[in-house]
Each structure stands twice: as C-alpha cells, then as structure tokens.
Amino acid sequence: MNVSLSSFYAIMSSVIFFSYWLLVVITILRIVTRRRPTTYVVAWMLVIYLIPVVGIILYFLLGEVHLGQKRASQAQEMKPQIESFMHEMQDFPHIFTSNVSSVAKPIFQLCKHQTGLDGINGNHIELLTDADDVFDNIIQDVDQAKSNIELVFYIWNKGGRADDLEAALIRATERGVTCRIMLDSAGSRKFLRSPDSKKMREAGIEVIEVLKVNLFRMMFRRLDLRQHRKIIIIDNYISYTGSMNIVDPRFFKQDRNVGEWVDIMIRMTGPITAVMGIVYASDWKLETNKQLILPKVLEFAEPPEEQGHILQLIASGPGYSENMIHQVLLTAVYAAQEQIILTTPYLVPSDDLLHAICSAAQRGVEVIIIIPQKNNSLMVKWASRAFFSELLENNVKLYQFKDNLLHTKSVLIDKQLSFVGTVNLDMRSLWLNFEITAVIDDSVFGQELNQLLSGYLANSEPIDKQRWLKRPFWQHIIERLFYFFAPLL
After folding, report:
1. Could you check whether 69-97+119-309 and 324-488 share the same CATH topology?
2. In the chain, where the domains are located
3. Which pLDDT band, with edges at 50, 70 and 90, does 219 fall under?
C-alpha cells in the first residue's frame, strides 16, 4: 500500500510539475505575441520567474487590456452612431482644415489616418492655470447652462471649491438641466460613498461609478484599468479638459507632505466640443449601456472664427486605436526643430519615447523636462530616477519643481504645437488607461503656455549632471531594481 501511495504521489507531482510548466509556456507565448514594448515583455517574464504561480495569476489579472465581454459588446453597438455622426460632419467641410504649421502637419496627418478627421477649425481656447480660476469658470458656465452638463473625472474630493461646484450642479438640475457624472471607482471611492454623492443623486443628477473595483470583477477585467479622463461638456458647445481633478488643492491630500497639486485646464468653445461629446457618449454607453443622443452637426457647424484655434482631440484606451497617443508623441518629438518642453508628474517613458527624446537633444533640439521634486508615489519616484542618467548624458535638461506637486501634463513643441490633457509619460497612461489629450496648433496659445512653463522653470531646480553621477551607490541599486519593473508601473 505504501508503494502504491508513493506511486500516486509521484504521478501527481509529475502532473502538477508538467501542468505548471505548460501554463508557464502558454503564458509566455501569450505575452510575447502581444504587441507590447520589449521592456514590458521582459518585465512580466521576470515577474513570472521570480514569483512562481503568483506571477502567472498577476499577469492574467493585470497584464492584459480587456474590458470584459459585456463592455466589448456595448462598444460595438456604439460604432454605427459614431460613424453616422462622423459622416454627417464631413458634409460641413469648413469645420476642418489641413492648413496647419509644418511641425503640426505629420501629427495631424497621423490623427486623420486614425480618426478620419482633419484638424478642427474655428475654436476658442482659454488656458486656466489657477484652481480658483478653473472653478470660477466652470461654475459660471454651469449656472448659465440651458440643456445638458456632462462630466467624467478620475477624482472628486469633497471640500472647498469642489463643494461650490456640487451646489452649482444641483441648482442646474433644479432648473431642468440634465446632469450626468462619471467618476472612477478607485480614484473617487470615498466620494462615491459619501452623503454628498447621495445628495446629488437625490437632486436628480446621474452619478455613475466607473470601472468598479471588487474581487468578482477581477475575473473579467483588469483591476488597474482606470478612467483617467477629465472632461466637462456644457450645452454641447463648451468643454473643458486638462490635468485637474475635481479637487480644491487646499483640501486635497494635505497629509502626504507634497504640498498643493499644481494643475492646468483649458476651456474650449466650438466644434471641438462635439468631438469631445462623442468620447463622452462612448464612455457612457460602456458604463450604463444607455445610448446618448449626439448633437446635430448643424448646431455647431456655424462659420468658424477667423482667429479660431485649430485642434485635434486624441482619446486613448481600450476600444480606441492601439498606442495612438504613444505614436502621436513620438511623431511630435521627431518633428521638433528647436525646442521641446515636457511637464509630467510621472516620468517612466517607453524605450521608444526615451530614445526619441534623447535623439532630439543630440540633434540640437533644446529638450527640457520638468517633474515634481516631491511625488505622491514612491515607486514611480525611484523608477523615474532610473532614467535620469541616460537623459542627462544626452543633454536633456531636467528640472525638479519645488514646494508643491506639479501635476500638469503638457508638451510644447517649438512654441507652436501644444499638448494639454490627462496623459502622464508612463506606461499606464500611454498604453492602458482611458485618457484624453487636446493637440493645439497655434503660436499665440503656444506662447501663453510657454510663459506658464517659464514660471514653472523659475520655481524649479536643475538636476546637475556631475552631481547626479556622484550619488551614493545604494541609490543606483534601488533605481535599477525599480527600472526592471518600470514598464508595469
């Protein structure tokens, strides 16, 4: 009997051993056949090797971009309406223009190839750089709204001016304006379970929790897939986007010892808002399975302003053209002739983007990257440091913003082409999350953004190459450790 039992254990051990390695091979084949950067593939293979079994489980939970069958089906249902809307827009050619600057031309051509739309003409944009100004403008527009208000944000944090906006939205609902809000389940978790959220719902505002986080949903969708867009649409004509969440910096995460968060938003009026509405309607369909009625093109197809801004709007995330924002950023960096200024709170670029930035600096383009000195993510802080040496050795100028947490996400190319939106220079923003970016081809707006960035630089400290190379050896070790896992952050 002991012999038979021993044989059974031996057979079971062999079966388990064979099954495990078969699963490892299948998982690795799945990883390498996905169109992902090499560093991403190597990082996941390292995780699977270092953490047996658990590494495989983590990959299937966090390593693949999938919305779940239900959401995928809903995304397909939205396509005919979007295609019809796009076709209708083509009947009004004055909305579009291909007459853009030389630096913008390759970017706009790429966008047209992906979306079918040329640059969108006849818009007015206002850059808002102070939190109080942002809230003042939004609340004023909400108070004047006549038909509809739509918002989607990653974070809504109670306190200060955020409460003023809440009150304005309730007032709008009371006078018959339709108000819809989508908030990310992870970013706005506390608010979604607060009395304020209940109060808004009771007032008639539709408040939707997006991409809910719980153990059951782990089997069907990535838990770290987040709704990171910041969008406001008012009466299908006014829209906002940028890096700022619905938070008053004076009340937000004051216990983290990083100071107040520094953000920007842009207020836009004109045809670009209709395109923003398509993005919002698609997100709404994914979350609620309800189809919003898109505005008639005639409602915004008036002759464009003579001095209007030319824009492209890039939505990224599952269901959109894969690596779209990544391709656009690469194209913009390679198109630069004189100067590139980037601001990002999280600097963990892909190899392709890192090489493009270094190549630009080597061919004589002045490349400036501004990041916060204080960061709310210890992991990202150390992962970012792993890139400093290569950037500095290639003449990229690195600056650390002092006192507060610089959360602005922007790119300025040759003082002409501006990127403003929600995308960080990390793998999560570039490849995973739902993001939105406005691309503005306008020298006047570029000068305005440049003035803001000059102010950031005045409040920043340069990272000296020689001092950096002499940092303690233990810091090298920690940086390299986080560098291996940077593609997963």
Report:
1. yes
2. 2-62, 69-97+119-309, 324-488
3. very low
Q: Give the active site residue among 158, 184, 228, 441.
A: 228
Distance CA 375, CA 404 (A): 9
Catalytic position from the list 141, 184, 230, 381: 230
For 284-300, how does the pLDDT look when each residue is reduced to its tens digit (9 = 90+)? 988 888 888 776 655 56
Cβ atoms of residues 336 and 368 within 8 Å: no
Could you confirm whether 230 is annotated as catalytic?
Answer: yes
407 is a catalytic site residue? yes
Task: Check if 296 is active-site.
Answer: no
228 is catalytic: yes
Catalytic, out of 263, 409, 426, 442: 409
Catalytic residue among 414, 426, 441, 442: 414
Of these residues, 141, 235, 263, 441, which one is catalytic?
A: 235
414 is an active site residue:
yes
Going from the C-alpha of 444 to that of each of 266, 307, 410, 433, the distances in angstroms are: 14, 10, 16, 31
Q: At what angle do helices 105-115 and 324-335 cross, to 10 degrees?
A: 160
What global pTM score does this model have?
A: 0.87
- 69-109: per-residue pLDDT in tens? 566 566 666 667 677 777 777 777 778 888 899 999 999 99
- CA–CA separation, 290 vs 80, rounded Å? 14
Q: Is 409 marked active-site?
A: yes
CATH superfamily name and code, 69-97+119-309: Endonuclease Chain A (3.30.870.10)
Instruction: State the architecture of 324-488 in CATH terms.
Output: 2-Layer Sandwich (3.30)
